[in-house]
């Protein structure tokens, strides 16, 4: 064998080893679970002010430590500024739609819509466990976009109906949110009660999030706030029992119509993400984003003094409003600038640069090794 032939054989062997290692690495990096965190109205200004209000230093949230970051366009199909229905539909289905629509797209015929398959439905079809947790109403646009398909986000009766009549699998396994009174009113129109309807669909139904630990299928509906970390810990403990994996969507309201309340929710969700990162496995893709941004601005404040105290002092001044506050001000509602998408875990490296919010659907599919359906 000539020296040239020996060299070719060595290089060929090295290439084979490299390709083999790359292939095994790709398999090892495939996600088993996906946890999607939605900060509703949690745009960059809100994250910035929320972190400083909580910790009195910039870039102090756990979210800021997530290694892969991109900027997501949130415009809807028919408006530059999206609502939560269209914003979440894009993330969950990979399709832009009109404002107020939920996982449905216009067909072009007199207000008719067509359903679009959601990532949660992909997971259900493949036998994964699924969960939806929110501190807002369970039928509201963001949670509804994971499992329901309606042309009008306010159609709560139809959303509740689809909640218990899923198109794929047995539907969402763990449901936690507000809207208990709404559920009672909606099911009363069907001459039944939420207790009866959820029990018939195989759920344990109640107001205490602790029931999740003992029930593979549970619906916790409340009309009051609940402690987020115990609830999400119980949810993950339950979902993780499925050897095929799970998908969990956690939404936390970050609207800052009431600035201090909304920015407090930033801290709550950040603490949740930090805690979940400690208990979920390394085979879990963590993805945080917002469905849209909001008209909040950090307008002032002196370093070295607690920002919360400065804000309170400003609010106490006669005549000061949210729009004239010199520390944290709010002007209007939803806004159209890009929002952050931050990720860690298998498949997170695909989150980078500028992209449309529909890309996040592809990121989740790719992380699981699934192909999008036509």
List the helices and strands and how they pair.
Elements: H1 3-28, E1 33-40, H2 44-55, E2 68-73, H3 84-93, E3 104-106, E4 113-115, H4 119-125, E5 129-137, H5 141-144, H6 156-164, E6 174-178, H7 180-188, H8 194-200, E7 204-206, E8 218-222, H9 228-239, E9 246-253, H10 259-279, E10 284-289, E11 293-298, H11 307-315, E12 328-335, E13 339-344, E14 353-356, H12 359-368
Helix pairs in contact: 2-10, 9-10
Cofactor: Mg(2+); Zn(2+)
Pfam families: Alk_phosphatase
Binding site for Zn(2+): 40, 255, 291-292, 334
Summary keywords:
two-stranded antiparallel ribbon, Alkaline Phosphatase, subunit A, ten-stranded mixed beta sheet, 374 residues, metal ion binding, Alkaline_phosphatase_core_sf, 36% helix, alpha/beta, alkaline phosphatase activity, signal, globular, 14 strands
Strand content: 15-25%
Secondary structure tally, helices: 12
What order do the helices and strands follow? HEHEHEEHEHHEHHEEHEHEEHEEEH
* Helix proportion range: 25-40%
The domain tally reads 1
The computed structural class is alpha/beta
Largest sheet: 10 strands, mixed
Q: What is the name of the CATH superfamily?
A: Alkaline Phosphatase, subunit A
Structure description:
This protein is of the alpha/beta class and 374 residues long. The protein has one domain (32-173, 243-368): Alkaline Phosphatase, subunit A (3-Layer(aba) Sandwich). The protein contains twelve helices and 14 strands. A ten-stranded mixed beta sheet has the order 7-8-6-5-9-1-10-13-2-14, sandwiched between helices. A two-stranded antiparallel sheet has the order 3-4. Helix 2 crosses helix 10 (259-279) and helix 9 packs parallel to helix 10. The longest helix is centred in the N-terminal third of the chain and has 26 residues, at 3-28. Residues 10-28 have low confidence and may be disordered.
